[in-house]
Structure formats: structure tokens, C-alpha cells
Amino acid sequence: MFFIELGLQDAEISGIRQTCGHLSFRTQVTKIFLSWSNPRLEVSLQQIVMAMNSHGLDSTSMMTELEQIHTEDNIIPQGTGIPEYHLQRIPEPKEVETIATFVDTSYFNLFLELGLEPHIIARFEMDHKHSGVKTLFIELLNIWIKESGDKATINSLLMAMKECNMDVHAVTQELSEVLLDDIPYEENTYL
Fold first, then answer.
1. 175: nearest Cα among 89, 81, 103
2. Rounded to 5, what percent of the chain is helix, strand, coil?
3. What count of other Cβ atoms lies within 10 Å of the Cβ of residue 99?
4. Mean pLDDT across the stretch 24-40?
5. How far apart are CA 36 and CA 9, in angstroms?
6. Distances (CA, A) of 140 to 82, 98, 109, 127, 163
7. pLDDT tens across 165-176, in order?
8. 84-188 fold
9. Which of 49, 56, 163, 165 has the smallest count of CB within 10 Å of its CB?
10. What are the residues whose beta carbons fall under 8 Å from the beta carbon of 48, sequence distance 6 or more?
């Protein structure tokens, strides 16, 4: 009813839900929002708040969340097992492959969080339809690294995964093991 209040047709909403049924609910909602905002030139947060209020949905928590986005510290907490200097660098191919293992059905939102445009994600989905999801995730991570340059850090990737409720703890554990494997044996024995 919320999306109908915003002006979408029930058939359009159902079509997106059916097409994206294998993705997380959050991603389905994101795709419905994109469908709502795409053909409209004038979309606003106020329209969303009004639709929420007319259906008894609490918009204050959403507004609080939006305000916190600009004030939060964007550093993964210490204790992850990954030294700060590793967090601030671009992931290497071995690390990209490790991280891709932990990307889940919220991947669409993850890559939006990282700054990729929806049409780029959709193009890669089509190009990698038959090659497997891990390959898709690796390719999307590589395009993100290419487009973002020095801003494509392990930390920014982990923060985006955290925002999408992915298992950041498991990723950091696996990454710390990968990093330890790369340290020469003599140095590793002193850790």
C-alpha cells in the first residue's frame, strides 16, 4: 500500500517482487524504489515521509538514520584482526575473491552503497547470468575498484557490507587469516 500511495501500480510492484524473489527483501524494496523514482523527475524525501505517515509507518527512525549517516565514524572497529594500514588500502585479487565469498543476496544494495550505478550492476548481472554468483561478485568488486581508485579500500567495502547486514565478523576473520598466510613464515612466528 505504501508504494501504491507513492504512485506505483500493483502489477509493477508484483512484477518486481516476482523477478527479484531470489534477492533479499531489502533489495526488492530498493528495486521498487528505483522503479518509482526512475521515470519521475520530481521525487523527494517529503513524498516518502508523507506516504509513510499516511500508512501509520514511523518516519522518525528513518530520518534519524539518515542524519546518522553523515555523523558516524566510518572505520571498522579494532579487534577485527586486520591492521589499520591494511584497512586503508585497495583489496588485492586474493582478498577480492575471499570477500566475494561472503557477499549475499543483498549484493545489489552493497554495490549501490559502494557507488556503482544500478544500470552497471544490471549489466553485469546479465553478462554473468550463467557464470555463477561468485564470479559476478568478483567482477562487480573489480569494477568498483577500477572506478573508485584509491577510495576503494578494504575499510569502505567492509563498512558497506556492515550497512547491508552482511557477516562482517566472518569476513574480517577470513581476511585476517589470508593476510597472515601472506606474511613470510619467519615474521609469522613472532605474532
1. 81
2. 65, 0, 35
3. 22
4. 85
5. 10
6. 23, 14, 12, 11, 18
7. 899 999 999 988
8. Death Domain, Fas (1.10.533)
9. 56
10. 6, 59, 62
Q: Tell me: the pLDDT tens digits for 69-104?
A: 554 556 665 566 778 888 899 999 999 999 999 999
Closest to 180 in 3D by CA, of 83, 78, 79: 83
Please say whether the beta carbons of 161 and 98 come within 8 A. Answer: no
* Residue at grid coordinates 524494496: 29
Confidence (pLDDT) at 43: 76
Give the cell for residue 8. 506505483
d(CA 109, CA 107): 5
Close Cβ partners of 153 (under 8 Å, ≥ 6 residues apart): 87, 88, 89, 90, 91
Residue 145 neighbours by CB under 8 Å, 6+ apart: 90, 91, 96, 152
The domain locations on the chain are 2-71, 84-188
How many alpha carbons lie under 13 Å from residue 149 in its C-beta half-sphere?
A: 1
Which cell numbers in the block locate residue 80?
A: 577485527
Cα separation, 111 vs 102, in Å, equals 14
Cell numbers standing for residue 93: 585479487
| Average pLDDT over the chain, rounded to an integer | 83
Sequence length of the chain is 191
